[in-house]
Design goal:
The protein is built from 7 helices and 6 strands. A 4-stranded mixed sheet has the order 3-5-4-6, with helices on one face. It has a two-stranded antiparallel sheet with strand order 1-2. Strand 4 and strand 5 form a beta hairpin. Helix 1 packs across helix 4, helix 3 packs across helix 4 and helix 5 packs across helix 6. The model has no long low-confidence stretch (mean pLDDT 91). Bound molecules: zinc ion (ZN).
């Protein structure tokens, strides 16, 4: 389905239902993990994410300097008219304490690679997106390219069917039910469980649980 593009980048932009993105991301991740490791388990190894992105791009540079693209740019996917896109992620995310940030950025760029390369074949010459600190996990829905890549970042790292299981087990363990508010102890406990089970930041876990309706705010 196509809608007018309010950002003016393209004449029209593709619209995906959230469950379409969830299904597609889970299929890609599970297919990859199964063929690479013979099994699907979470959290995804950071190196597995790197290998998947290497396979899906023509070149992946995780030691990039993107300072000339703007002060907060942490990742960039450069689309290609002929082949696969190239992906750059800033070298600073290799610092051990920023591994969660590296993981969400790799998964975000994978979203651009899988969803958006064909658009550039339709409309050559449109600039590729630069992904800033604030848009990697959650962008406004108006900035649909960033929003879609951000949604995919969560859907690759925390696929719907496995998160559903984590939430079910957490509820069984603690005895709460329904959709806890993120400000309550139950909501915070759920965010912590997801954070640990999928090796993501508390912010990424909170955004994903909100998007899936497992918590409210
Ligand atoms: Zn982006």
């Amino acid at each position: 389905m196509w809608l007018p593009d309010p950002t003016g980048r393209f004449p029209e932009r593709p619209f995906y239902q959230r469950d379409e993105l969830d299904r597609e991301c889970e299929k890609i991740m599970h297919g990859f993990l199964k063929s690479r490791n013979g099994k699907v388990s979470y959290p995804i190894e950071t190196n597995d994410l790197v290998v998947l992105l290497e396979q899906e791009s023509s070149d992946l540079d995780v030691w990039a300097d993107l300072s000339s693209d703007g002060p907060d740019v942490e990742g960039k996917t450069t689309f290609s008219l002929k082949g696969k896109p190239t992906v750059e992620v800033i070298a600073e995310l290799q610092e051990p304490h920023r591994e969660n940030r590296l993981r969400t950025t790799l998964a975000h760029e994978l979203g651009h690679v899988k969803l958006h390369n064909y658009l550039y074949r339709l409309h050559a010459g449109v600039p590729s997106p630069c992904c800033t600190h604030d848009t990697i996990i959650g962008a406004s829905q108006v900035d649909w390219m960033e929003w879609q890549a951000g949604y995919c970042s969560g859907a690759f790292l925390m696929p719907l069917s496995v998160v559903r299981r984590t939430v079910r087990e957490a509820k069984k363990g603690t005895g709460f039910s329904g959709q806890p508010d993120v400000a309550t102890a139950e909501g915070q406990a759920l965010i912590q469980q997801v954070r640990i089970a999928y090796q993501v930041s508390a912010d990424a876990a909170r955004v994903r649980l909100l998007q899936l309706g497992f918590v409210v705010e």
